[in-house]
Amino acid sequence: MKRWYAYKDAFLDLIFPSDIYCICCNQPIYNQPYSICKDCMAKIKWVTLPTCIQCGKPLSLNYLTHKCHDCIDTKHSFKQGFSCMVYDDRAKEMIYGLKFNEKAHYAKFFAQLIFEKIKNENMVFDYIIPVPLHKKREKERGYNQAKLIAKHLSALTQVPALFNVLIRTRYTLPQNQLSLRERKNNLKNAFQVTRPSVLLDKQILLIDDVYTTGSTVDTCSKELLINKASEVYVATCAIGEDF
Predict the structure, then answer these.
(1) What are phi and psi of 29, to 5 degrees?
(2) Facing residues of 204 across strands?
(3) What is the rounded distance in angstroms from the CA atom of residue 206 to the CA atom of residue 76?
(4) Which residues, in sequence order, are CB contacts of 21 under 8 Å at separation 6+?
């Protein structure tokens, strides 16, 4: 029954439009963007300049380089990353709701935020691809949150979203329970491209909910590039800060 939640949510949105009530506090809203009230909007910590030119993490104003500590130490496969919110308690609560509390309608909100972000960056790409879940985990959760975001983003950008071109081939442990080294080992050989010809010389926008160490999007990007994608950009809802 749970696997139909995303479809039921879309149907109910036609009857009870989600832009009438704030998705965070459920209070009535009037002429507010993103289906969120002014009070809740003010509580969100937005990603603002300066940011890391590689992954998009916010940097302190007195930071002396254009890359965060992680990107200085790690060579990433993706060309550039963008994110909307700092991954603090407020963002965690919202993303947790999307992933585990059956709040599929949050995906539309996150897609709108990413749309504004990439529009401001004048990004050009050929396809949108979500980070895939393993079939077992997607069945347990009822949907893949990155896939829902990608669907909404595709509608906003008019850029096709590709599903089942990048797949997860084995069940992996949740990344947030692992160290950096364990995260990389956990994802080894975990992704596969099923139709390489589709990717030939294409620019890809890879979608995920959160960027922390970048291990997941890095592994996905590498697989896409091995299969002849020309460049991979990454867009996420929230991102950790540089310390």
Answers:
(1) -130, 155
(2) 127, 232
(3) 14
(4) 27, 28, 29, 35
Which tokens hold the place of 43? Answer: 């509580």
| Contacting residues for 148 by C-beta, under 8 A, at least 6 apart | 6, 104, 107
CA separation, residue 6 to residues 9, 108, 151 (Å): 5, 11, 12
pTM for the complete prediction? 0.90
C-alpha–C-alpha distance, residues 236 and 218, integer Å: 13
Q: Model confidence over 214-227: pLDDT tens digits? A: 999 999 999 999 99
Kindly state the tokens that stand for 28.
Answer: 């009535």
Confidence band for 2, pLDDT divided at 50, 70 and 90: very low
Q: Which residue has the tokens 């963008």?
A: 82
Q: How many residues comprise the chain?
A: 243
Tell me phi and psi for residue 50, to 5 degrees: -80, 150
pLDDT range class, residue 129, cuts 50, 70, 90: very high
Q: What is the 8-class DSSP label of residue 161? A: B
CA 106 to CA 102: how far, in whole Å? 9
